[in-house]
UniProtKB/TrEMBL annotation:
It is an enzyme of class 2 (transferase). Residues 1-29, 286-319, 517-537 are annotated as: Disordered. Residues 10-19, 286-300 have a biased composition (Polar residues). This is Arginyl-tRNA--protein transferase. One of its GO terms (molecular function) is arginyl-tRNA--protein transferase activity. One of its GO terms (biological process) is proteasomal protein catabolic process. It comes from Populus trichocarpa (Western balsam poplar). It catalyses: an N-terminal L-alpha-aminoacyl-[protein] + L-arginyl-tRNA(Arg) = an N-terminal L-arginyl-L-aminoacyl-[protein] + tRNA(Arg) + H(+). PANTHER family: ARGININE-TRNA-PROTEIN TRANSFERASE 1 (PTHR21367), ARGINYL-TRNA--PROTEIN TRANSFERASE 1 (PTHR21367:SF1).
């Protein structure tokens, strides 16, 4: 076996077909309930292989036939049978164009490293697709007096504040959905926090003079849930299905937002279903010089317990040290402790569910035969194989990416992170770093050009973020051709399983029938020559 491994190493870096024999056994189909569509029947169908060893070249070929790995298990969905077809998605790193949202994620991390963003307490663990669009970093005095003429700069500043507050409310609503306080099946409205007019602040009501912003989102949530329940209501439903009244919803949301409001110089109260923000008293004088921080670039809040402070309040900012370390896959007690915390806090696993043996099985064990650097342009400086990429801030391990580095790509398998750092969007940030890594290492290894994001399920809203890394491609499940996402999307909008390359053929005015027989047979011949079993059919 050692001889085969050495042979595989040499062949993997030479680019020829003398790859060594992979050791793979067929474990047949695996049927289970689906965690994506929540089907309770055995509707999720995958073909599973057990691999004791496999070369990086052969595994690259398997990825390009729709396979993935979890530990030493290789699996592939039976696309025409499974309830939620899973399409392999990839991106050519050199073509990647970051969106405004992705740029904000990078800038937020940079601000955090620069010492502009302070975390006062543990942040509630969320990986929310919507991130605040503006940051709190520029102090502005908002007294009880307001001039009649508002400059354009002041107006923009006010817009940034209300946008950020709205995003914060949305994040808390998302958390409530995940925890079961609101039904997950209902699409809830987006929050809108508005500035209170000068006229309303002059009303003879206690605290009105300090009222700055307000939102009626609790009324909208209650109405939306009530409408959804009225549609599906039948005789078997009881009165227990009545939604919470706006007053209770507002109180719950205000309680969750309280700490975040305080760190930004505001106080928050629920009042008859409304969520109201007030200026907080500063020092012992009066409420005249209450402060809230704002910015036009990005939001560093949006999660409980973080704020961006002005230098006048914190004259000396402590810079942080961010290190990204790449190491071969191996068991690390510190990584396992972080994984346990992540699974228990983010995925609500019980401590008994998160065992060291399962962690080793799925995230440490690997069948990939490692390839060491060759000193030429066939292998990157780190070599090929399975790796753990650690994100360390001031010596504290905050995230770990489980990845495979292969002749053509970096394949992302899993990421776990410290729930206290959820406000930094570690999932998005790590993806951007991995894309950047591919760009940098293509210089050393020209064949290494792609970033594989795993599977994409069009019917699963939680998977949609993967298509935001553009321009991406999906793998056709029949012909194993790569199809641009914008071409595949209309097909997937109509049905979950589609022969994606049909769309390309039709655009080119070609018939799909000859390619079905010819290309599929050609792919089967390639599979046999590599001596790798994909399926029984």
């Amino acid at each position: 076996m050692e001889g085969n491994k050495r042979k595989s190493d040499a062949s993997s870096s030479s680019g020829n077909n003398n790859r060594g024999e992979p050791v793979v056994s067929d474990d047949d189909s695996l049927k289970s309930p689906c965690c994506y569509c929540k089907s309770t029947g055995l509707t999720s169908i995958f073909h599973v292989l057990r691999a004791d060893s496999i070369t990086v070249d052969d595994f690259q070929d398997l990825l390009d036939r729709g396979c993935r790995r979890s530990g030493s298990s290789l699996y592939k969905p039976e696309m025409d049978k499974t309830c939620c077809p899973s399409y392999t998605i990839r991106l050519r790193a050199s073509d990647f164009v970051p969106s405004k949202e992705q740029q904000r994620v990078s800038r937020r991390m940079q601000r955090f490293v620069d010492g502009a963003l302070d975390v006062k307490k543990a942040v509630e663990a969320i990986e929310d697709p919507s991130i605040c669009a503006s940051a709190f970093n520029e102090v502005s005095s908002l007294g009880t007096k307001e001039t009649s003429s508002v400059t354009k700069k002041e107006k923009n500043m006010g817009d940034h504040i209300t946008d950020s507050l709205s995003e914060q409310v949305d994040n808390v609503i998302w958390t409530c959905r995940e925890s079961g306080q609101f039904p997950c099946s209902v699409q809830l409205p987006k929050a809108s926090v508005k500035k209170v007019s000068q006229a309303k602040r002059k009303l003879p009501v206690e605290g009105a003079e300090n009222l700055m912003y307000s939102s009626n989102i609790a009324f909208q949530i209650a109405a939306t849930i009530r409408q959804a329940q009225s549609i599906v209501k039948d005789a078997s439903q009881s009165a227990e299905d009545n939604p919470l009244p706006p007053k209770i919803i507002a109180e719950n949301l205000a309680a969750s937002l309280d700490q975040l409001a305080k760190t930004n110089g505001l106080s928050i109260r629920a009042c008859n279903g409304h969520i109201n923000y007030y200026t907080a008293a500063t020092q012992a004088s009066s409420n005249k010089d209450s402060h809230i921080a704002t910015s036009s670039q990005e939001s560093a809040t949006g999660r409980k317990g973080c704020s961006l402070r002005n230098s006048s309040m914190h004259p000396k900012r402590k810079r942080r040290r961010l290190e990204i370390r790449l190491k071969r896959s191996s068991f690390d007690p510190e990584e396992f402790a972080l994984y346990r915390r992540y699974q228990i806090n983010v995925h609500n696993d019980t401590p008994d569910d998160v065992s060291e043996s399962l962690y080793r099985k799925f995230l440490v064990d690997t069948p990939l035969v490692p390839v060491q650097p060759s000193g030429d342009d066939r292998v990157p400086p780190c070599g090929f194989g399975s790796f753990h990429q650690q994100y360390v801030i001031d010596g504290h391990l905050v995230a770990v990416g489980v990845i495979d580095i292969l002749p053509k790509c970096l394949s992302s398998n899993y990421l776990f992170w410290d729930p206290d750092y959820a406000f930094l969007s570690p999932g998005k940030y790590s993806a951007l770093q991995e894309i950047g890594w591919v760009k940098e290492n293509e210089v050393y290894c020209p064949s290494l050009q792609y970033y594989y994001l795993g599977y994409y399920i069009h019917s699963c809203s939680k998977m949609r973020y993967k298509a935001a890394y553009r321009p991406s491609e999906l793998l056709c499940p029949l012909r194993y051709k790569w199809v641009p996402f914008e071409i595949a999307q209309p097909l997937l909008d109509k049905k979950s399983y589609a022969v994606l390359s049909d769309s390309v053929l039709l655009q080119n005015g070609e018939s799909s029938q000859p390619l079905v027989s010819g290309n599929v047979m050609e792919e089967q011949d390639d599979d046999n020559s590599n001596n790798v079993l994909i399926d029984d059919e």
